[in-house]
Amino acid sequence: MKRNRLEISLAIALVISIVFSLVGFDNECEKIRDSVLRLHILANSDSPEDQQVKLMVRDALLASGTEIFSGKTNVSDAEEILSNEKEKLVETANKVLKENGFDYIAKIGFAEEYFTTRTYEDYTLPAGKYRAIKVVLGEGEGHNWWCVMFPPLCLPAAAGNTEIDLYITKEGGSIIRSKPQYEIRFKLIEIIESIKNKLYN
User: Can you give the residue ranges of every domain in the chain?
Assistant: First the structure.
């Protein structure tokens, strides 16, 4: 009997420990989401030509972002700057489309979108809703492309030089650099966020 009680007590303690650990992890994941601005580009279609020009538009927008975000370490500032520079970004995208013989245009706006857990080179971002710069080319019915525009993880000038702790809390930086020991918690967070996304949409 005493052994059963001990096993039950240990099991309860383990469950409580896991719950508290997950709650802390979830709080840090929320801070990460609040510190990130993603770039989401939808191609006109899945034709090779539309997919190719999508990448050309991507490169042009990222080149613009390198200049726009110079010296910025706050996502609110970054979003405000992008709001002011929105027309310039639209012009940049449409110039690429026109120069390559496409008669459709780009539409750019801000959106809050749900993303599954994604790994970008050395970083893993937890599932959940993020603010995103959404770029729709033409009908926007083709495969999409995404990256983290701020912090500038996918900007050309950032390759190998981004000190993520300048933009995200130290704990958050540790999470997105996580190796396999965090995969279970990432999966649990993805399940929770997926349920929330379905319930509130």
Answer: 28-199
